[in-house]
């Protein structure tokens, strides 16, 4: 039997602002800000009506997708996206592991910790589209810029979560390994790796899914992949081809989602 006692009556949780007048003032201030913010939005209703008409044509094209007329371009862009997704995820995971270990306060010395945390902060601070624009300007149009963009984004994503997981491991297991006189590498291998590996595999699969969706976004700015093909189809008002591309993207994302969910259950 547990010795814990549970409350029998409900108690209101503590409030951040105790004074009722200040709470009302804050609520009125937030409401006034929202009203002013909405009033500052300049809406061109004529353009909205034109956009709705274009949106209707796009929806009709989405409901009648054309997979054949531009299949060569679609297949080429799809292969580029899948290649960028897989290679960037693998490279990103390989680079993220040492950075994530270095960014864990309970494993790394202070100077390595701050360096690795700075790398993570820079990677997380920049959106993929911004990185893609910068790399396209450096290396030109094509999938190489997309590969570098997704790899860089993967590092910030995985290294951050891996470092947090390492800092939250069961210290009792780590202390038991240290008590045997194990080296630092043996500590990582026998105390840290068994606790974080299932989580790392699940996060890697999740990032694989994200990278494919992001490859469609960064392709719009010239970083290759299916996004470039989609952007070309929209620019040419080929909404039936654009609908086909979107259906392919949705289908692949759904397959990846169900596959990764099954694999995560299998690993756990």
From TrEMBL:
Compartments where located: Cell membrane
InterPro entries xref list: MetI-like (IPR000515), MetI-like_sf (IPR035906), PhnE/PtxC (IPR005769)
Matching Pfam families: BPD_transp_1
Residue stretches spanning the membrane: 21-41, 86-108, 129-158, 242-263
GO terms assigned for molecular function: ABC-type phosphonate transporter activity
Record keyword Transmembrane helix present: yes
Entry keyword set: Cell membrane, Membrane, Transmembrane, Transmembrane helix, Transport
One GO cellular component term noted in the UniProt record for this chain: plasma membrane
Membrane topology, from the record: Multi-pass membrane protein
Domain ABC transmembrane type-1, chain residue ranges per copy: 78-258
Family from the record: Belongs to the binding-protein-dependent transport system permease family.
Protein name per Swiss-Prot or TrEMBL: Phosphonate transport system permease protein
Organism of provenance: Roseivivax lentus
Organism placement in taxonomy: Bacteria, Pseudomonadati, Pseudomonadota, Alphaproteobacteria, Rhodobacterales
């Amino acid at each position: 039997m547990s010795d814990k006692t549970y409350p029998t009556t409900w108690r209101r949780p503590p409030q951040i602002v105790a004074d009722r007048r200040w709470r009302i003032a804050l609520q009125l201030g937030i409401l006034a800000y929202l009203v002013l913010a909405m009033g500052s939005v300049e809406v061109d209703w004529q353009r909205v009506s034109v956009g709705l008409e274009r949106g209707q044509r796009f929806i009709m094209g989405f409901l009648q997708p054309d997979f054949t007329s531009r299949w060569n371009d679609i297949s080429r862009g799809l292969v580029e996206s899948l290649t960028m997704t897989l290679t960037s995820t693998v490279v990103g995971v390989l680079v993220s592991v040492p950075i994530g270990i270095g960014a864990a306060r309970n494993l790394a010395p202070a100077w390595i910790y701050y360096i690795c945390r700075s790398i993570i902060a820079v990677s997380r601070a920049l959106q993929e589209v911004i990185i893609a624009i910068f790399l396209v300007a450096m290396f030109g149009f094509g999938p190489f810029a997309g590969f570098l963009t997704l790899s860089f984004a993967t590092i910030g994503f995985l290294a951050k979560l891996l470092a947090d997981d390492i800092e939250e491991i069961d210290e009792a297991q780590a202390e038991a390994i240290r008590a045997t006189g194990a080296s630092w590498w043996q500590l990582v291998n026998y105390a840290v790796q068994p606790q974080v590996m299932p989580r790392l595999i699940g996060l890697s699969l999740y990032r694989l899914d994200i990278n494919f969706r992001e490859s469609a976004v960064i392709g719009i700015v010239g970083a290759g992949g299916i996004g470039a093909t989609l952007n070309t189809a929209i620019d040419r008002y080929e909404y039936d081809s654009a609908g086909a591309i979107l259906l392919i993207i949705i289908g692949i994302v759904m397959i990846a989602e169900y596959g990764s969910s099954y694999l995560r259950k299998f690993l756990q």
